[in-house]
Specification:
The protein has 747 residues and is an alpha+beta fold. It is 33% helix and 20% strand. Strands 6, 7, 8, 9, 10, 11, 12, 13, 14, 15, 16 and 17 form a twelve-stranded mixed beta sheet that branches. Strands 18-21-20-19-22-23 form a six-stranded mixed beta sheet, with helices on both faces.
């Protein structure tokens, strides 16, 4: 019997070709009815039998457009209405609460094929369709419509318009639709000349790249700098030009098979590499690229082409792999403006490629790493932002300003948290501008007006100062409580849990620097059960650049000046007088804040074994320590876990190992295993006493793959339920989500 059904689909279903897809499924199955975009999804009305309904839902679930994602499908019978045919109803009911803005999507295979066959799109690098192309980076306002994107200045040619209006065409309502007749174009700035012929641009680009050239290229969310990743001379020149001393460069391979020649790739890693989000994936190196690409690390940050131009460059040259690093100087945000790129990047690059469509929202390449077969996001930007995190709680009207160093902010819309793209280190003036501008843009785009602001407790964070300047109630949340809350939110947990935050720094309730917290907590509150014992940080902030100071502090704490007798290698180049001064400063408590930060402990060990005494970029010492681990070594060191966790015995054993000339790769393995043991031992103790079985892990230290994988595995072996991050970063970029949740629960 034919009845009328109303089907509601929620999820990312707008701006990704969902309505035309529904239309085609209905037509192919001879069904009458309608489809309409609503506030939080798509509503379909169908005249059909129960069987036809089930078949329809099945097809929708299994064949949905690749860039869409369905959260739920609900249906119910409604009053019988008669339809003649199937139609797309013009959206009338889009109100303030519409929040799904699609992230940018890598060019699809159909478009790559069209690039070879469609006369008006042969080698046309701005090709796109309803399944692919720019989205967030060009959207100025909602609803998502060409007029409200930076494509508005391009008037569609008759052929593009035909596709755009033909419901059966795969470019139906593809807002950025374009071709070589009517769409955006590249321009190559080389010396004093400008090349506008599109074919010549590709020729010149490949010629330059093959001959040691360095080129700035405008990408989706900003400029990137490219050069041949197999040519050491060029890569080391780029390093000098970019004033980037030690941080590895990301690289783009021509295709997955070439990539597999240089890096080890498992199934989950391949899936991330090939996903439409096309992130940079951290992989174990197999064959060395130019040494200056990753400077001694055993990992490669690798990605695959995602813009049509990338495909053209590889296709028209025999390049296998190029460096593709953010187009910025040092820690500034990636450049998005054409003139600025020509002026600033033009100074250091041999050529600059711009195009005449504006980037409205800046995004950088996203960075992920696979741990225990799950994707973990280190930098959440292109392809990921601004996808919302769905919550069980209403968080409407809350603005969370995030932390400081790897900042992201977060806004609450009903039951969704919208986390901004990676912003960066707010201490940089240009980054701070990017931050305040982005908050403005999000307010407009998502029709958001805050009623409460929530920040970190740290009074000096620029994100805190930003909030204080607002004329609104401000809530403060402890840094590591926010870390744990962010991971709980990801998993929809709302109960007391064991929260373990291993992290660099964050201000604690007692005024000390926290960062190795074992909590019992929920969203509202926490109690600190134990932590790594405090150690003075001689020189305060200086220690992050000079890990040897922290090593000295640990040694002095545990055995006074006895370490002078050990003839430690890492102290050989440091004048004894300077070391004495540090001991004196510790003794007199001059500029020696106390820290329980796990990151500092890793710093100290990396320095103690003389692996990294001075750090050239954020978290270099822990990263180097991780990269040398001998994974075959399952031994560990002693430690004490009483009221606080002490590593006195650990340090004594490490010094003994150094005296015995045990390789540092073994010492590193034993140290990492020790931390795993600490987490297990303390978790067991807390479980026994408080009868809690859910363990939530968060904090920057969990970017350490060896540590994370082993802690998770060992906890599971002990029958704990373990919750780790996979949708948002475990580092400070995830903090804002936790702040939001804590604020919502305390409100
Ligand atoms: Zn496409
Ligand atoms: Zn056209
Ligand atoms: Fe943190």
């Amino acid at each position: 019997m034919i009845k009328t059904y109303k089907i509601e689909i929620q999820g990312l279903v707008q701006g990704v070709g969902f309505r035309p897809f529904i239309y085609r499924v209905a037509i192919e199955n001879n069904l009458s009815g309608s489809v309409e975009n609503r506030n939080d999804g798509v509503v379909i009305i169908l005249d059909c039998t129960k069987q036809e309904l089930e078949k329809f839902i099945n097809i929708v679930q299994s064949n949905a457009p690749p860039a869409s994602s369905i959260d739920s499908i609900k249906f119910k019978e409604i009053e019988k209405t008669e339809f003649h045919g199937f139609e797309i109803v013009k959206s009338t009911s889009i109100s303030d609460s519409i929040t799904d803005v699609s992230p940018d999507i890598a060019v699809c295979n159909d478009c790559l094929l069209d690039m070879k066959t469609q006369p008006n799109r042969i080698d046309y690098p701005f090709i796109n369709c309803t399944n692919c192309g720019p989205r967030f980076t060009i959207i100025q306002d909602l609803p998502y419509d060409r007029e409200k994107t930076t494509m508005q200045k391009f008037k569609m040619c008759p052929e593009c318009n035909r596709e755009y209006t033909d419901i059966l065409d795969r470019r139906f309502h593809a807002q950025p639709v374009a071709c070589s007749v009517c769409g955006p174009e590249y321009k190559l700035h080389f010396k004093d000349s400008k090349i506008t012929d599109q074919k010549l641009i590709i020729d010149k680009t490949t010629e330059l790249l093959k001959n040691k050239g360095i080129i700035a290229i405008k990408g989706l969310g900003g400029f990137f700098i490219a050069c041949d990743a197999l040519c050491e001379e060029t890569v080391s020149r780029l390093r000098k030009l970019k004033a980037r001393e030690g941080k590895p460069f990301a690289v783009m391979f021509s295709d997955i098979n070439t990539l597999k020649q240089y890096a080890k790739v498992n199934e989950a890693e391949e899936k991330s590499l090939l996903s439409l989000k096309r992130p940079i994936v951290l992989l174990k190196e197999k064959v060395k690229l130019a040494p200056s690409v990753n400077l001694g690390f055993d990992t490669i940050g690798a990605m695959l082409p995602y813009m049509p131009l990338h495909y053209l460059i590889f296709e028209k040259s025999d390049l296998k792999v190029i460096v593709l690093t953010s187009g910025n100087i040092s820690d500034e945000p990636i450049i998005t403006n054409n003139d600025k790129a020509v002026n600033i990047l033009g100074e250091i690059c041999d050529a600059v490629i711009t195009y005449n469509r504006d980037i409205h929202n800046r995004t950088d390449d996203s960075v992920v790493c696979i741990m225990n077969s799950k994707e973990r996001i280190f930098r959440r930007s292109r392809g990921y932002a601004p996808s919302p995190v769905k919550l069980l709680t209403n968080v409407n009207g809350i603005l969370a300003t995030g932390a400081e160093l790897v900042n992201c902010f977060c806004i609450g819309k009903d039951n969704q948290a919208i986390l901004s793209q990676h912003i960066g280190d707010l201490k940089n003036i240009e980054t701070y501008e990017f931050y305040t501008e982005s908050i403005k843009k999000y307010k407009k785009l998502f029709r958001f007006e805050p009623s409460i602001i929530v920040t970190d407790m740290h009074p000096d964070y620029l994100s805190t100062r930003y909030a204080d300047e607002y004329d609104l109630p401000v809530m403060k949340v402890q840094h590591h409580h926010a870390h744990i809350a962010s991971c709980m939110a990801e998993h929809g947990l709302d109960e007391q849990v064991i929260g373990i935050a291993l992290d660099g720094t964050g201000l604690g309730d007692d005024g000390n620097i926290w960062g190795s917290e074992f909590f019992i907590c929920d969203y509202k509150d926490y109690s600190r059960i134990t932590h790594f014992e405090y150690v003075p940080l001689p020189g305060g902030d200086k220690v992050t650049h000079e890990p040897w100071r922290t090593a000295v502090s640990y040694l002095y704490k545990y055995n006074g000046k006895e370490f002078f007798n050990h003839n430690l290698e890492f102290l050989k180049d440091i004048p004894k007088q300077n070391i004495e001064l540090i001991c004196e400063a510790i003794e007199k408590k001059i500029n020696c804040p106390l820290s329980s930060g796990a990151g500092r402990l890793f710093d100290a060990v990396a320095a103690l074994i003389n692996l990294c005494t001075v750090s050239k970029f954020h978290a270099e010492a822990p990263m180097r320590l991780e990269s040398i681990i001998n994974e075959k070594n399952k031994d560990s060191y002693l430690f004490d876990a009483d009221e606080v966790i002490s590593f006195k015995k650990t340090f004594t054993e490490i010094i003994n190992d150094l005296k015995k000339n045990i390789p540092i790769s073994d010492i590193s393995a034993k140290f990492h295993n020790t931390i795993v043991n600490v987490v297990i031992a303390v978790s067991l103790k807390i479980r026994e006493k408080h009868n809690l079985n859910k363990v939530v892990l968060s904090g920057g230290t969990f970017q350490n793959k060896y540590l994370s994988e082993n802690i998770e595995k060992e906890l599971i072996k002990c029958d704990f339920q373990v919750f780790t991050h996979s949708k948002i970063p475990t580092n400070d970029a995830g903090i804002a989500l936790g702040q939001l949740m804590v604020a919502a629960s305390r409100k």
